[in-house]
Design goal:
- The structure holds two protein chains of two kinds.
- Chain A has twelve helices and no strands.
- Chain A is mainly alpha-helical.
- In chain A, helix 3 packs across helix 7, helix 3 packs antiparallel against helix 9 and helix 4 crosses helix 7.
- Chain B has 16 helices and twelve strands.
- The longest helix of chain B has 19 residues.
- In chain B, helix 4 runs parallel beside helix 5 and helix 9 packs parallel to helix 16.
- Chain B is α/β, with parallel strands linked by helices.
- In chain B, the strands form three sheets. In chain B, strands 1, 2, 3, 4, 7, 11 and 12 form a seven-stranded mixed sheet that branches. Chain B has a three-stranded antiparallel sheet with strand order 9-8-10, sandwiched between helices. A two-stranded antiparallel sheet of chain B has the order 5-6.
- The chains are: A mainly alpha, B alpha/beta.
- Chains A and B meet through loops of A and helix 4, helix 5 and helix 16 of B.
Chain lengths: ~290, ~400
């Protein structure tokens, strides 16, 4: 009796999962695929591979993918470095007021972070005005603006500002749940010095557990829209900005290209997830 | 070609779809309808004109409730295209504020209702003989959109920082070289209108590019335009590696003093931006000696609009002498009228001719001689794409 109820519950759960998670996403992808191939769409002139050929043979998509991945990787690396060092150096203090304060940046929406970064670093922004006031540069036009430049410095900075507090909290929580301090004590009892403990014990423990979250962070940044829209340049553009531009571009014939870029992006992130998730499963089995 | 085909097959069935009856009947049916107007909402003055003047009058005099929806140009096309693709019978918007390539594209996807302008009583005041009103990007409007306002592109500079602004293309590049990083233009509608004015100058000026899109003429003049830009772009803002995404962003750069120039499709915008306190009072507008583009903007009714009568009544009010005069005041919006003053009843004629003088913008009479006609929409579509390939990505 209870096992049939359990089975029924499982089926309902599966149905709900399919209905709210799988069906809309795969339906959207299917529509995108049809659109990119000319199967649907108001201006479609029949099936064609034109959009795909243009996207795959042109440099725009590849440069956008490279730029987006670079930005996302930079953000993950910098904020992991900052997050780890803060979590480890602050230690117990994170349990108190400081930990609560760290939650505040988590409530800042992306758009607001982008806007603040812009106000701070633009050519006529706050930093630039301060630099003029203290006499470091003659006028604001000389300020090396860090937003809307081809390296994406402003984009990386805004994302790092948002991601670091999250990672501090994540690493601090992991350190507690993985009983890192116990292992550290054990290692030093066995004669390991501070650097050895850090490199052989603390970092592997924390990073391995944090890996799925870091991959998700990478994907979130890869697909981010508002921050690169406000702080980026026209070329190269990050993937979401590129898709939206192609979707609403003056030339309606380019709309199918927006859909093929969107599909390529989804496939890329899916492959990334598929590579990481089984790895985690196997690790868990091993331990 | 596609547009010509669309015109051909659309006119027949449009008449059949028109709600029957006189203007009186239209007024009766419109009463109680809530009309959705999809418009660009980037200017607080324009928003205030609609909210504080138009909407209360419509409600009081015609029982029509006006609601605004924020969307412009390609967003409108994208929105209506999606509605059609989803086969939604009733559109979320009734009236769309459009012109040029948006009109062209909406005709392409058959998203506009019409012809309807001959049903509007106030259409008799419109200056139909004026080619700048009758043709929208070289396309005859044929009653599928109603003229609402008429403006001319102008460059805006800070006379406090620039004593004698450059008035020719050669003078422009010379000024850029002497003042690196102090000039730029946006990659949307306004910046493209600037490039179009330069393209016409390169092609020989005046009517050189008039008529349907001409591939060889375009290729020849645009090649020269890109060569000139690539030669000089390193003296633009951010060394020409990137450009502001829209004119609002360019206005901000100008207001914060980061650049010394901005631009507007509306020759009178400088007046209302100074009044808003956004631009310094030293800001001035002018046009290039080789001319700048003058165009009109229009109101269209969506094919699937659920409140067509309300839409007709609203548009008829918007082209009334009363609403047009109010809109023309620099303290309200500063948008040029599409009405022919000589066709108006005497009292209105006087009000229009005794228009408040422009304080910071050049007078219309002074720049009318330098007005260039809009080009066929393909020029703008190609410029938009090619600017990216030949200038930004280089």
């Amino acid at each position: 009796m209870s096992s049939t109820a359990k089975a029924r519950g499982g089926r309902v759960g599966l149905a709900v999962f399919l209905a709210i998670a799988v069906f809309p996403a795969s339906g959207g992808l299917l529509y995108a695929l049809l659109y990119s191939l000319g199967g649907v769409g108001l201006l479609s002139r029949g099936w064609t591979l034109q959009a795909w050929i243009r996207v795959l043979t042109g440099s725009e998509f590849w440069r956008s993918l490279l730029f987006s991945s670079t930005v996302a990787a930079e953000v993950v690396l910098i904020s992991v470095a900052l997050g780890l060092s803060l979590a480890l150096s602050l230690g117990e203090r994170l349990q108190r007021t400081l930990g609560t304060l760290l939650h505040v940046p988590l409530t800042v929406p992306n758009v607001v972070a982008a806007f603040l970064t812009f106000q701070l670093l633009a050519g006529a922004g706050l930093m630039s005005r301060v630099a003029v006031r203290v006499g470091a540069i003659p006028d604001t036009a000389r300020f090396p603006s860090l937003v809307q430049e081809p390296w994406g410095i402003g984009i990386v900075l805004a994302h790092v500002l948002l991601a670091t507090p999250f990672l501090v909290l994540l690493f601090a929580a992991l350190a507690r749940s993985e009983r890192v301090s116990a292992f550290v004590e054990l290692a030093s009892t066995l004669g390991a010095n501070h650097t050895q403990t850090l490199r052989r014990v603390v970092l592997p423990l924390l990073l391995r557990q944090a890996l799925p979250s870091l991959v998700l962070l990478f994907i979130a940044i890869l697909g981010s829209y508002d921050i690169p829209l406000l702080l980026g340049v026209q070329s190269p553009q990050m993937l979401s900005v590129l898709v939206v531009r192609k979707n609403g571009i003056y030339d309606l014939a380019q709309k199918p290209e927006a859909y093929s870029v969107a599909i390529l992006y989804s496939v890329f992130t899916l492959l990334l997830l598929l590579r990481v998730i089984p790895l985690q499963g196997r690790r868990r089995e091993a331990s | 070609m596609a547009a010509a085909l669309a015109f051909g097959c659309r006119q027949g069935d449009a008449d059949a779809a028109a709600p029957p009856g006189s203007w009186r009947e239209t007024l009766l049916r419109a009463r109680g309808q809530t009309v959705a107007l999809a418009m660009w909402q980037g200017d607080p003055y324009i928003n205030a004109y609609i909210r504080d003047f138009v909407a209360p009058r419509l409600r009081r005099d015609y029982g029509v409730v006006l609601r605004t929806v924020s969307a412009q140009g390609n967003q409108i096309v994208s929105m209506l295209m999606t509605e059609k693709e989803a086969r939604r019978p009733n559109s979320a918007s009734d009236i769309v504020w459009i012109n040029g390539e948006t009109f062209y594209q909406l005709r392409q996807i058959e998203a506009l209702y019409g012809p309807f302008t001959d049903r509007l009583p106030n259409a008799r005041f419109i200056d139909w003989r004026n080619p700048f009103i009758r043709y929208d990007f070289q396309q005859e409007i044929r009653g599928f959109e109603c003229p609402w306002g008429n403006v001319q592109f102008a460059l805006i500079y800070d006379s406090g920082a620039v004593a004698d602004p450059p008035r020719t293309r050669a003078a422009l590049s010379e000024w850029w070289r002497a003042h690196p990083g102090r000039f730029t233009f946006d990659v949307q509608f306004t910046g493209l209108t600037f490039l179009k004015s330069l393209l016409i100058e390169i092609a020989g000026g005046g009517q050189a590019l008039a008529g349907p899109f001409d591939e060889s003429k375009y290729r020849e003049s645009s090649t020269r335009l890109w060569a000139w830009l690539n030669e000089n772009k390193r003296f633009l803002w951010k060394s020409g590696r990137t450009f502001p995404d829209g004119v609002a962003q360019l206005h901000e750069l100008f207001a914060s003093g980061e650049v010394a120039f901005t631009m507007s499709n509306n020759d009178r915008e400088v007046d209302n931006k100074i009044a808003q306190g956004l631009f310094p009072s030293t800001a001035r507008a002018y046009v290039l000696d080789s001319g700048t583009i003058q165009n009109s903007h229009y109101l269209g009714i969506v094919q699937g609009a659920p409140h067509k009568e309300g839409a007709l009544v609203t548009i008829n009010f918007l082209i009334s002498p009363e609403a047009q005069l109010e809109k023309q005041k620099p303290s309200v919006w500063g948008d040029g009228t599409v009405l022919d003053v000589t066709r108006m009843p005497a009292p209105w004629r006087e009000s229009f001719t005794s228009e408040a003088p422009r304080s910071y913008a050049p007078s219309r009479a002074a720049i009318q001689g330098k007005a260039l006609m809009e080009l066929a929409p393909e020029y703008m579509l190609r410029l938009h794409d090619d600017f990216r390939t030949h200038v930004i990505d280089r």
